[in-house]
Design brief:
Helix content: 25-40%
Distance between the termini: 60 Å
Oligomer: single chain
Order of helices and strands: HHEEEHEH
Radius of gyration: 22 Å
Strand order of the largest sheet: 1-2-3-4
Structural class: alpha+beta
Low-confidence stretches: none
Shape: elongated
Length: 88
Amino acid sequence: MDDISSPEFAKKHPEFLDRYLTSKKHKDLHVGDIDYLQDKNGKTYYQDSLNQTYFCDYDLKNPSQEVLGHMIEETTFTQEELKKKLKK
C-alpha cells in the first residue's frame, strides 16, 4: 500500500489530487457560524441552527447511554426556556 503523504505517491499518481479536489462538492471553506450566549457565571450555551434550540456542554466524560440521554434533556433548551433560565 502506498503512503499518500509521500512525494513518491504524488509522482506515481499525479491525477490523484486533481480527482480528489474536483470530487469535493463544497468549494467554500465556510461551514457556518457558531451562535452562543453566556450566562453571568460564564457558562456557554450554543445554538443548534437546525432546530433552533440551545445546548451547553456536559461536565461528565464518557457517560453511559442512559446517563447521556438525561444529560442531553437537562442541557437542551428552546429559546424561550433559555431566556427564562438566564433571567434567574
